[in-house]
Amino acid sequence: MVKQKIKVKGTEIVIFLQKKEDYISFTDIARHRDAERTNYIIQNWMRNWSTIEFIGLWEQIHNPNFKGIEFDAFKNEAGSNSFTLTPKKWISTTNTIGIIS
């Protein structure tokens, strides 16, 4: 795994190459907002309907094994007060390739 760092608004963000694909660290981006509770920041971001729609669309384009029915269930629940989603739950439920945890 090849790692690089970039600096954005004073925060170092890791970009790394894995299996010929570039990934960016959401944890590093979340650290800019709240260094003590990055998991909370990411979980809140993943509750948003537009986030679910974006990452689901990306998966539909790039991942032939993406589980679209499970994605639809998340998209229908996204934004409601009781909806929660973590990267691990997203990965295990939808068979995603675009997010790693």
What does this protein structure show overall?
The protein has 101 residues and is α+β, with helices and mostly antiparallel strands. It has 2 domains: 1-38, no CATH class; 46-101, no CATH class. It is 48% helix and 19% strand. It is built from 5 helices and 3 strands, in the order βββααααα. It has helices at 26-33, 38-45, 49-62, 68-77, 87-94, and strands at 2-8, 11-18, 21-24. The protein has a 3-stranded antiparallel β-sheet with strand order 1-2-3. Helix 1 (26-33) packs across helix 2 (38-45). The longest helix has 14 residues, at 49-62. The protein starts with a strand and ends in a 7-residue tail after the last helix.
Overall pLDDT, averaged? Answer: 89
Helical/strand content category: alpha+beta
Please provide the count of β strands.
3
Strand content: 15-25%
Q: What is the topology, as strand order, of the major beta sheet? A: 1-2-3
Q: Give, in order, the helices and strands.
A: EEEHHHHH
Number of domains: 2
Quaternary: single chain
| Radius of gyration over all CA atoms, rounded | 14 Å
- Name the helicity range: 40-55%
Low-confidence stretches: none
Number of helices, counting only DSSP H or I runs of 4 residues or more: 5
Shape: flat
For the termini, the CA-CA separation is 14 Å
Question: How would a crystallographer describe the biggest sheet?
Answer: 3 strands, antiparallel
